[in-house]
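Listing S7. Sequence submitted for prediction.
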Amino acid sequence: MDSTNTRVEAFSTPEIWAENRQSLCDALPWYKSHEASLYTIDKVAKGILINKQVSVRDYLSDEVIVTTLGGGREKNKTGERARAKDGSQRPKKYCLAAMESSSPVGVILGNQYPNLSISLDHAYGVMGYFFITDIWSERDTSTTAGFSIWKIRLEKADQSSPSWWQPRSNLPSDNGIQNSSHSAPLAWCTSCHKSSKTVFSCGWACLHKDCTSYFDFPATVDIKDLAYSEDFLKERTARGNIKLPEIKPSPPIMTKDMLGTEKEMRVGIVCPECGGCSKRKFWDRWVCENPACNFIWQATPKPFPLSHIHKEEKTACASSKFRTSTVLAGIELATYTVNGYSVDHYLLPDPCDDSPSILGSVAVFHSTKAENAMKGGADDMWEALQYETISDFCLQRNPVKHAGLPTEVLTRHFLQNWGAPYKFAVPASSKPFKEAPQSILAGLNKAKWAGKIAVQQMQAITKGGLTTSAQCKSVSEKFTDFNELLSLGYMENDKISYHDDGEDTLGPTVATLSLGSPAQMAFCIKPKYTDSSKKTDILKFSFRHGDIVIMHGTRIHQMYEHRVEPKGKRRFALTCRNIILDTLNKKTRHEAIEKGALPDITPFWDYPKPGQNTELGDIETQGLQSVVKKPSGKRTRTSKDTGHKSKV
């Protein structure tokens, strides 16, 4: 039935439920499929969602489900997903592996399931574990095309008690018929010599799609009226006493050897009080997403020692993939030193220009342990932020799309914006700089210093005869002060996929100071400017604790995208931008000016320090095809071109 108005009262409520797909996937270890209906681990089906998409003869009873596996649907002219070809072989193989190994499959029922007869008060309800008993192929007789589809029959694993989704008015039902004498007979095909069950009430047919007699019925049978037989639906499989894994996970517990940002602590939870699934939205705790429930599971991260960061860096540098940078031919590289930093300055060409002009640059300021250990340096920022993120301000995940809807998706990282308001996919609340701790202001100060150097050096490179490529006219020749800072927190396995910072409210320069675990950053040309739909890295480099990355040039974000992948268990990133006040409405502009006003910074956190040597070193330019970064911090570059030096 397709209307919630005709649904009846269910026997009970699900033990586990969710209103949001991401919450469901975050909380359940056996189902993490954010889009597809089937979830697998090591090519074995572990969980399945039955919801909006159904096919002819799909069936749901108290203990048995017959459902169609995915694949073969495409969007039609009206935007609906409709059958356009045969079902996919891949999900069938995964389900076959589960059936042959007697592996239980967790099943979730969605409230958009057209065959649902009961009222489901939540978007999703967990039905429990089922076993796959049968897999077969049949034709989709709802259309004249007759595409082949794969069907599976699932049987409830625990049949000792009523199912919550059965209608209350139907009790008693078929519970307890596991000792039923019903059995669908087998028959062998004379064409392919393979057996098939008699699944239809009208009689037997070969259900092997590669057989010449596949799905052949007598002429008297109208295949549009096919129905499954009572024997097939009511037969039960004797399995004895099988110990099933826990369907409802307990909230994660931080053990003595954990620091609180490991992947085990990054998952969602099933609320032990109401059964609702919730994402981990806050840096220091879980909060049940059910408005009627007050459950909070505290998970304050422990301090992450600098020794752990150094160990992560050593482990990362042991991998050649981390040490080696990808630099596509045509990207020029300039190197120089300033105030203890060694800088790799990449010049990005216009991919649509036959005589490539430089449309922007990416400068990577590589720090050292000595620089990081200075008063108010990266080490002090790291220690301060670890405390401040659990006491002075809270990092949290914000919606990245479909805010407020059941399909809402949160960012992978945790964040807090400072200064002028910044719309990151959706507007996020911003705190004024006057409320920011000194460590945040120190990060902003250091990013400004590096940003000024990077812009100055780009002009020296492009106008000082160090490259034959012309600088695009869109590239700003002057640095514009930052008035916004986005503080980001990453736990283990968190990352930002390919995106751009091309909002029309942003100035030409974006700076990021990295603190904590090492990471890798990559750039790709947007697919619309290439001959391929695949996003291929054209620039990829590693950076570590205390390093700063400066992107300069608005057209970088028009033509390129970038991503960041941390290689450890905890990282903070302080990303600074200039929000162009003239692009904001009067109210927002006033807010941006007020919140972007900077308080004084103490000498401890100020940078550069009095007496520091900020003189720029020589610039060396190279047209590279590969850059190898050795663990010692020395960088060996191989190139067919000969680098040249020039004093700026």
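Caption to Listing S7: primary sequence and predicted structure tokens for the chain studied. The chain has ten helices and 38 strands. Residues 323-613 form a domain with the Jelly Rolls fold (CATH 2.60.120.590).
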